[in-house]
Specification:
Largest sheet: 7 strands, mixed
Protein name: Cytosine deaminase
CATH architecture of the largest domain: Alpha-Beta Barrel
Structural class: alpha/beta
Number of strands: 17
CATH topology of the largest domain: TIM Barrel
Shape: globular
InterPro entries: Amidohydro_3 (IPR013108), Metal-dep_hydrolase_composite (IPR011059), Metal_Hydrolase (IPR032466), Metallo-hydrolase_Enzymes (IPR052349)
Number of domains: 2
CATH superfamily of the largest domain: Metal-dependent hydrolases
Radius of gyration: 22 Å
Keywords: Hydrolase, Metal-binding
Bound molecules: zinc ion
Enzyme class: hydrolase
GO molecular function: cytosine deaminase activity; isoguanine deaminase activity; metal ion binding
Length: 429
């Protein structure tokens, strides 16, 4: 006996017309046709049912602050950091909590139920940390929120950087962050990577650093991060976020670097929307793309997962909490247009990110948590193409968000009256 059966689902691995039985909040059967009855049934009518989207890189303390206290006039990374520095001293805990909760509402409707957020620890008052810890508790019934201690103004460079950072970890932040390329010198950056990996080893925490978010090919902190990961025995528990300098590095150097990263089992987190928007700003033409080497890193066996990074904040006025928008951009920037490529990109928004975040019970297997999304698309390729509505979002077997299918009404004589951009336009077999 099942609590719920989802009938006729297409799965991300390509299986079609599959039934998914749910009992006690877990997936208890996946079969071509489940004969049993259930208290409730949902007919997916041949639409894609996926595990939820996972965002491994976000800034929940800055989200939805667009226009406060002013707009980013130049639209650059450095003005964004300066602007956040203006907002941070005047923001209240209540505002931070309110904005984060509103973002989480949006995320749930987009089927995004797992988020890793960096939290700025630079201001010694640590209002951001207090607020995000409160948010982590409040959203726990519907979103798993991991928090990274993020020394935005530099671990060494900020006046109280080290003490504030350590206090944030004492308060219960989950992960050790860093920003080596923003320290005063390359030497300070290198030293910060070593110091922060040591802290992670001592405290038994994972690491996730903003690393080499620059077009400077000589910004090579990822090499140090990989080496320190091995030195401190942190293999598989360390993430390098952005790594945009790899785009511009010398190919010989990269041929040595990628195997080192693989040995350290570094989780790689590019942020395609932000990277394509913010990198290459010192170029005239040709203008670099500034995203790290996604295909080469995947081919070398590294776990690559994509982050949204920003939604309507000092760095990025756009964004919608839709990880498919992130994947759509990734396909274009990485030029991953093949069929297998698109499958890899979808994995980078779901299972790879779950691995990066160390999620347990995630996935579409018997015994996993019944956390699922039904999309208005028939397969992963169509999902990436259309960024369709999430018809239903389930958490532990309960529907927690719904959207109506997106149907266009057409008022043209002799043409169809209704257009479903998924079903009506699927390629014919
Ligand atoms: Zn970031």
């Amino acid at each position: 006996m099942f609590d719920l059966i989802i009938r006729s689902a297409n799965l991300p691995d390509g299986r079609k017309g599959i039934d998914i039985g749910i009992t006690g909040g877990k997936i208890s059967a996946i079969d071509r046709s489940i004969a049993a009855q259930a208290g409730e049934e949902i007919d997916a009518i041949g639409r894609l049912v996926s595990p939820p989207f996972v965002d491994p890189h976000f800034h929940m303390d800055a989200t939805l602050s667009l226009g406060l206290p002013r707009m980013n006039v130049s639209g650059t990374l450095l003005e964004g950091i300066a602007l956040w520095g203006e907002l941070r001293p005047i923001v209240t805990k209540e505002e931070l909590v309110d904005r984060a909760l509103r973002y989480c509402d949006l995320a749930v409707t987009q089927g995004l139920l797992f988020i890793r957020s960096h939290v700025d620890t630079s201001d010694p008052k640590l209002v951001t940390v207090e607020a995000m810890i409160e948010v982590r508790e409040k959203v726990a019934p519907y979103i798993d929120l991991q928090l990274v201690a993020f020394p935005q103004d530099g671990y060494y460079r900020a006046a109280d950087g080290i003490s504030s950072f350590n206090r944030a970890l004492d308060m219960g932040v989950d992960i050790v962050g860093g920003i080596p390329h923003f320290e005063r010198t390359m030497g300070d950056g290198t030293a910060s990577v070593e110091a922060l990996c040591r802290i992670a080893a001592d405290r038994g925490l994972p690491v996730d650093m903003h690393c080499d978010e620059t077009d400077d090919p000589l910004s090579r902190h990822i090499e140090t991060l990989a080496a320190q990961t091995i030195r401190f025995g942190l293999q598989g528990r360390v993430a390098g976020s952005h790594l945009t300098s790899m785009h511009s590095m010398d190919n010989y150097y990269v041929s040595k670097l990628i195997p080192l990263m693989a040995e350290a089992r570094i989780n790689v987190i590019p942020n395609p929307l932000i990277n394509i928007m913010l990198q290459g700003r010192h170029d005239t033409y040709p203008k670099r793309r500034g995203m790290t080497r996604v295909r080469e890193l995947m081919d070398a066996g590294l776990n690559v997962s994509f982050g949204h990074d920003c939604v309507m904040d000092p760095w990025y006025s756009m964004g919608s909490g839709d990880m498919l928008e992130v994947g759509h951009m990734a396909i274009h920037v990485a030029q991953m247009a093949g069929i297998d490529d698109k499958k890899k990109i979808f994995d980078a928004l779901t299972v790879n990110s779950a691995k990066t975040m160390g999620l347990e019970g995630y996935g579409l297997e018997v015994g996993c948590n019944a956390d699922l999304v039904i999309l208005q698309a028939q397969d992963t390729l169509e999902a990436l193409r259309l960024k369709p509505n999430r018809l239903a979002v389930l958490r532990r077997g309960k529907v927690i968000a719904r959207s109506a299918p997106r149907i266009g009404e057409l008022l043209l004589a002799g043409r169809p009256a209704r257009i479903d951009s998924s079903l009506d336009y699927a390629p014919r077999d």
